[in-house]
Amino acid sequence: MNKKLQVLLADRWGITALNSMQQAVIAHDATDLVVYSPTGSGKTLAFGIPLVEALRADRDGVQAVVISPSRELAQQTYETLRTLAVGHKVTCVYGGHRASEERQSLTVEPSVVVATPGRLLDHVQHGRVDLKRVTMLVLDEFDKCLELGFEDEMRQLLRHIPRQARRLLTSATRLDDIPGYVGMRHPVTLDFLGEGDDPAARMTIHAVHSPERDKLATLLQLLLSIEPARTIVFVGFRDSVARVADYLSKNKVAVARYHGALEQTDRETALALLRNDSVRVLVTTDLAARGLDIDCVRHIVHYHLPATAEAWTHRNGRTARVDAHGEVYIVMGPDEIVPDFIKIDDELPLPQVPLHHGLSAPMTTLHIKGGKKEKISRGDIAGFVARNCDGLLQSSDIGLIEVKDHYSLVAVPRQCAHDIIARLSHARLKGHRTLVSLVRKR
Fold first, then answer.
1. One domain, residues 175 and 38
2. What are the start-end ranges of the H helices in 188-334?
3. Does 105 lie in the same domain as 41?
4. At what angle do helices 71-84 and 264-275 cross, to 10 degrees?
5. N or C: which end of the chain has fewer CB within 10 A?
């Protein structure tokens, strides 16, 4: 890794040393490389650094493509590569939002494209993206791509990738075989599953027994009795997300919901609310089991049992990341049986906590109209809030700021949110009046 990237990693993310998996991937020069490594182990940097180092300033067209199974993972990978690839254009294309802005962005060819399979195939078929000069292809979380049924799209896409392009495939579970259409002729495998750091060793698995088949009351008592911290509750169905979240909200639990039928902006906002401590609990389907950028998740609750050992592993992979410890809870109904792939550490009796206590969050989130496409930055937002709320809050009171394409989210202390909105409604952001409102959890 060159010196410039080392400085960037330290300045941007405080990373002064890479883990063993990242070092091994970066050092390996195999044309076809398969990397097995657990969720949250840093695979984006592992393939991102050699990808960026291989980019050539004197070469036109798309040089590298990263295919991701979900919009969220694509966006996170894009943000990382955009930071690393100084001097090169990085574009992200994915379904679930207007394609017109992507078409506009693609009028100037990027060096790197990060994409979900279906949307990239659409751009390729309409001649908006030319993959003939690609020298590196990354299939990120390939097992998840197959699980989500993207095989046909990927099969068609890979016909457009030059045979001589380097191929790097990542997966959090071992594959029985690599499909022939991937084009890996003599793949080298780096297997870091079950080696070295084991997140499962930093988790405690608790069984929580519900006296009734309807486990909502037990779930509520669990959430009220454990340490207030970032918590993800996994359920099996989209309809269950609404039912569980509505029940918790009615009982004063700060909660957000997340599943595939939500609009993209609603999904982005739900994750932001958990990241910035505006909610304590995220209720979700297995869609959130992989590829989400949420630090410091303390508790994982399995309201519905995972269907497979892989789902169990990936759900739990949201916690106990890096050196942290995680608590995992399985809410068991009277007739439910724990699958063989789950090993319980203890059974947790629940104290009866008065429901009026609720579970509030210290922050709330403001929605500001205007984002990256309006040339607004995090610094602009921080200055806008601090400058106009002097005496009401200090700069250190301002929480996480996230700038999206056409809107921004900023966390502020809950107790003074309405006063902040009143002040900002008369202020100007980069010379313009802008709409500021409170994000309503859905």
1. yes
2. 216-225, 238-250, 264-275, 309-316
3. yes
4. 70
5. C
| Same-domain status, 349 and 373 | no
Tokens 């050699």 sit at which residue?
50
Instruction: Give CA–CA dist 279/294, Å, rounded.
Output: 13
**Beta-bridge partners for 301:** 233, 329
> pTM for this one?
0.75
417 contact partners, CB below 8 Å, separation of at least 6: 364, 366, 438
Q: Which of 357, 390, 423 is the last residue of a domain?
A: 357
Q: Give the model confidence (pLDDT) of 234-267 as tens digits.
A: 999 999 999 999 999 999 999 999 998 998 899 9
Region at 61 (left for phi over 0; alpha for psi -120 to 50; beta for the rest): left
**Both 260 and 129 in a single domain?**
no
Check the CA dihedral 48-50-56-62 and report its sign. Answer: negative
Q: Considering only the C-alpha atoms of the chain, give the largest distance between any 2 of them, rounded to a whole number of Å.
A: 68
Sign of CA dihedral 40, 371, 395, 420: negative
E strand or H helix at 271, and its extent? Answer: helix 264-275
- Domain hosting 61: range is 3-191
Question: What is residue 419's three-state secondary structure?
Answer: helix
